[in-house]
C-alpha cells in the first residue's frame, strides 16, 4: 500500500471516529496546561490529574509560582516522577514567565523552549493546542504508532515530526497528535500491540508485515520449538529428581 493511501485511511478513520480527541490532562488556561505538560514527562496523565487541583489552587498564576520556591513546589508534586527536577523547573519557569514574558505563555516554539523544563515536545504541545500552530509533538506513543502504521519511517522523534508535518494537512496536526497518543496508550501499546481489537489492521504496515503467511508460519514454528524445549526441560527435571530420590533412599538403606 502506498504511503499516501495510509495517510488517507488514517485521516478518514479518525476524523469519523474521534473528531473531538483531546489531551487527557485537566487544565483551565494556557499556564495550567504548560505546568501539567511539564509535569507529565515520564509520568501518566492520570497521576498528574490527581495532583494538579491542589497545585493550581496554591499557584493559580505565574506570579504565585514565581513567588514560591522549589522546596515548596516539591511538597505538592512529590508523587510524580522526578519531583526534585520538576519542582526546580516549575520554579524557574514561573520566574521566567513573569520576568521575561509578562506573565503570558509565549506562542513561539523557540520562545517556549527557553523556559526551564520545556523541550521541543512540550513546546509543540503548547503551540499546537493553545495557539493552533502547525506543529505536532512527538512523544513515545506518537513515535511508535506512526512508525508501526507506516505513516513514517524514522528513528528519531525529530524525523517523525518532520515527516508527519510534511504529510498531514496543517489543520489536522494538533488533533493527529492526540489520535496517535490515545491509540498508542490504549491499543497499540509498546510491548504487545492489541492488533486483535485494532480497527486499523487493514492499512497498518506492522500488521501487514507480521501477518503474512510466512510470518505466521515462522511464529507457529517458533511456538512449537519453545513448547518442545519446555517439554524436554520438564522431562530432564523429573529424571534428575528421581535420581536424587534414589540416591537418598540408597543412603538411608545403608
Ligand atoms: S494493527 Fe497492531 S500494530 Fe497496527 S496500529 Fe493496530 S495495534 Fe498497532
Structure commentary:
Helix content is 67%, strand content 0%. The longest helix is centred in the C-terminal third of the chain and has 41 residues. The protein contains 13 helices and no strands. It folds into 2 domains: 200 residues, Orthogonal Bundle (Endonuclease III, domain 1); 43 residues. It is an all-alpha fold and 254 residues long. The structure holds iron/sulfur cluster. Iron/sulfur cluster binds next to helix 9 and helix 12.
Shape: flat
The CATH topology annotation of the largest domain reads as: Endonuclease III, domain 1
Number of DSSP-assigned strands: 0
First-last Cα distance: 76 Å
Rg value: 26 Å
State the fourth-level CATH superfamily of the largest domain: Hypothetical protein, domain 2
Bound molecules: iron/sulfur cluster
Offer a few descriptive terms.
Endonuclease III, domain 1; iron-sulfur; metal ion binding; 13 helices; endonuclease; 2 domains; binds iron/sulfur cluster; single chain; Endouclease-III_FeS-bd_BS; DNA damage; 254 residues; mainly alpha
Give a concise summary.
The chain has 254 residues and is mainly α.
List the SSEs and their pairings:
Elements: H1 3-17, H2 30-40, H3 45-58, H4 62-66, H5 70-77, H6 83-101, H7 109-113, H8 120-131, H9 140-149, H10 157-167, H11 173-186, H12 205-210, H13 213-253
Helix pairs in contact: 2-3, 2-8, 5-6, 9-11
Bound molecules: iron/sulfur cluster.
Family: Belongs to the Nth/MutY family.
Catalytic activity: 2'-deoxyribonucleotide-(2'-deoxyribose 5'-phosphate)-2'-deoxyribonucleotide-DNA = a 3'-end 2'-deoxyribonucleotide-(2,3-dehydro-2,3-deoxyribose 5'-phosphate)-DNA + a 5'-end 5'-phospho-2'-deoxyribonucleoside-DNA + H(+)
Protein name: Endonuclease III
Amino acid at each position: 500500500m502506498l504511503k499516501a493511501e495510509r495517510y488517507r485511511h488514517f485521516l478518514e478513520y479518525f476524523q469519523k471516529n474521534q473528531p473531538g480527541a483531546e489531551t487527557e490532562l485537566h487544565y483551565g488556561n494556557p499556564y495550567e496546561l504548560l505546568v501539567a505538560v511539564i509535569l507529565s514527562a515520564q509520568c501518566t496523565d492520570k497521576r498528574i490529574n490527581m495532583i494538579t487541583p491542589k497545585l493550581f489552587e496554591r499557584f493559580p498564576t505565574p506570579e504565585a509560582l514565581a513567588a514560591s520556591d522549589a522546596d515548596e513546589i516539591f511538597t505538592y508534586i512529590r508523587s510524580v516522577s522526578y519531583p526534585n527536577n520538576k519542582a526546580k523547573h516549575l520554579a524557574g519557569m514561573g520566574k521566567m514567565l513573569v520576568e521575561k514574558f509578562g506573565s503570558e505563555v509565549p506562542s513561539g516554539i523557540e520562545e517556549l523552549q527557553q523556559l526551564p523544563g520545556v523541550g521541543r515536545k512540550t513546546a509543540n504541545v503548547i503551540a499546537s493546542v493553545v495557539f493552533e500552530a502547525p506543529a505536532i509533538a512527538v512523544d513515545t506513543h506518537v513515535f511508535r504508532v506512526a512508525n508501526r502504521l507506516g505513516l513514517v519511517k524514522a528513528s528519531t522523534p525529530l524525523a517523525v515530526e518532520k515527516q508527519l508535518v510534511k504529510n498531514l494537512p496543517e489543520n489536522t496536526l494538533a488533533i493527529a497528535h492526540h489520535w496517535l497518543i490515545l491509540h498508542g496508550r490504549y491499543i497499540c501499546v509498546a510491548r504487545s500491540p492489541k492488533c486483535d481489537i485494532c480497527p486499523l489492521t487493514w492499512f497498518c504496515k506492522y500488521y501487514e508485515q507480521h501477518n503474512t503467511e510466512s510470518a505466521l508460519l515462522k511464529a507457529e514454528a517458533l511456538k512449537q520449538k519453545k513448547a518442545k524445549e519446555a517439554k524436554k526441560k520438564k522431562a530432564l527435571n523429573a529424571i534428575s529428581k528421581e535420581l536424587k530420590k534414589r540416591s537418598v533412599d540408597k543412603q538411608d538403606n545403608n
